[in-house]
Amino acid sequence: MGNKREIRFNAFDMNTVGHIQQGLWAHPRDQSHRYAELRYWTDYAKKLEAGLFDGIFLADVVGINDVYGGSSAAALKGAVQVPVNDPMMLVPAMAAVTEHLAFGVTVNLTYEPPFLFARRMSTLDHLTGGRIGWNIVTGYLDSAAKAIGLDGMAAHDDRYDLADEYMEIMYRLWEGSWADDAVVFDRAGHTYIDPSKVHKVTHKGKQYNLDALHLCEPSPQRTPVLYQAGSSTRGRQFAATHAECIFVNGQKVEGVKSIVNDIRARAVEYGREADDVQVFVGATIVTGRTEKEAREKFEDYRAYASSEGALVHAAASLGIDFAKYDLDEPIETGKSTAIVSNVEAMTRTAGPQWTKRKLLEQMVLGSRQAPMIGSAEQIADNLAAWMDNAGVDGFNLSRTVVPECFDDVIELVIPILQERGLYKTGYRDGTFREKLFGAPRLPGRHVAAKYRV
């Protein structure tokens, strides 16, 4: 092994038909239309665990992608992240048929009362035996804000201020309400909990007021593994403070490397260690036994990709209505309140004067994420180069045609990575956090530790 780091894989999916690669649900072999069947997800989880995947990362949105053309029609027609079911409901079923696979769930804190959400996550941590992670998001869809009774999204940086306060409440509930030895389970003395070991959480803040005991006894991890996908300046500050795993969208290696280095340097400034943060980059893999086979598969997939679906999704996540622009008309980015880092990434890739044509040239499989295409050997080389050159720890593999896209990685790519000592040959024991960092709980240097009993 030497000093080689093992590559980590998460399957990147969503409880929906069309996730990232828009239009591929129309491929005759794709099974994503079965997303509402429990058996679909339990079979999926068993497959990923057999392939020694670290986890499945479930994205989520609680609004409609209705920026394109000022309407939801194109999103509905093309199944662009709609219909979408609750990802948290899938976790206990998938956990019941696996032992090691972890579950990262995206939950938008803007629309979740902290007290109830803390209980749901503690429950999932108990039911999975400590295999749950939370991808902390603040949302980017005005449609979601309106659905919940607000006039629209708060400004980008304001959403992170709200999130900082939310996290303080979470830490107080998860880490500070119950002592580790609060549950005594004394049958003879008729005492289940020592009341002196359970503490009320009181909080009066700008956004939230709370006066409550956490309802759950300490779960295996207490706080779920914390994911975050913010690459904007304010997002990086938040990530460096709170996140254990960062999800970065695949762009050029240099761009990802600078984000990785910046977040790790900030984490150290905040009293953490650089290794306290692991980085996963988004990747789309199309592979085969030979390069020719992979290219043929890519051309087959490409025939079903939806350019309009890709623009519908991009319009919502960039906060720009592309329906208003001709193909070669320069696009005005202005002050987007959506995903600021996505706008910055597009500008890095396409230059300051980007157009719809430039955007569509990148969307070969129905998303802005350029696919890795090649033989299994070439894919293994490419992944290893990303690890070496960008300093990332692993990849969130976004689905193309399911389940065959994951079958290809498991059957063709992983054995090559294992031969090179770049991929595990078995799971470590323990919780999700133990597998990633070697300890079941957040370290004492994490900001959460100051709220402990």
Q: How many structural domains does the protein architecture include? A: 1
**CA gyration radius, whole angstroms:** 22 Å
Oligomer state of the chains in this structure: single chain
Global outline: globular
**At the first level of CATH, what is the class?**
Alpha Beta
Helix content: 25-40%
Lateral arrangement of strands in the main beta sheet: 1-2-3-4-9-10-11-14
Give the termini separation.
Answer: 41 Å
Poorly predicted sequence stretches spanning 5 or more consecutive residues: none
CATH homologous superfamily title: Luciferase-like domain
Architecture in CATH?
A: Alpha-Beta Barrel
Beta-strand content bin = 5-15%
The description of the largest β-sheet is:
8 strands, parallel, barrel
Along the chain, the helix and strand elements come as EHEHHEHEHHEEEEEHEHEEHHHHEHEHH
Total beta-strand segments: 14
Structural class comes to alpha/beta
Count of runs of 4 or more consecutive helical residues: 15
Question: What is the averaged pLDDT score?
Answer: 93
Q: Determine the CATH topology.
A: TIM Barrel
Keywords:
single chain, 453 residues, alpha/beta, TIM Barrel, eight-stranded parallel beta barrel, two-stranded antiparallel sheet, 15 helices, 14 strands, 38% helix, globular
Walkthrough of the structure:
- The structure is a single chain.
- The protein has one domain (8-290, 373-438): Luciferase-like domain (TIM Barrel).
- It has an eight-stranded parallel beta barrel with strand order 1-2-3-4-9-10-11-14, surrounded by four helices. Strands 5-6 form a two-stranded antiparallel ribbon.
- The model has no long low-confidence stretch (mean pLDDT 93).
- It is globular and about 70 Å long.
- The longest helix has 21 residues, at 156-176.
- With 453 residues, the protein is an alpha/beta fold.
- The protein has 15 helices and 14 strands.
- Helix 13 (376-390) packs across helix 14 (404-419).
- The chain has helices spanning 38-50, 73-78, 90-96, 114-127, 142-147, 156-176, 233-242, 253-269, 291-302, 307-318, 340-350, 356-362, 376-390, 404-419, 432-437; strands spanning 8-14, 55-59, 102-108, 132-137, 183-186, 191-193, 201-204, 209-212, 225-228, 245-248, 278-283, 285-288, 372-375, 394-398.
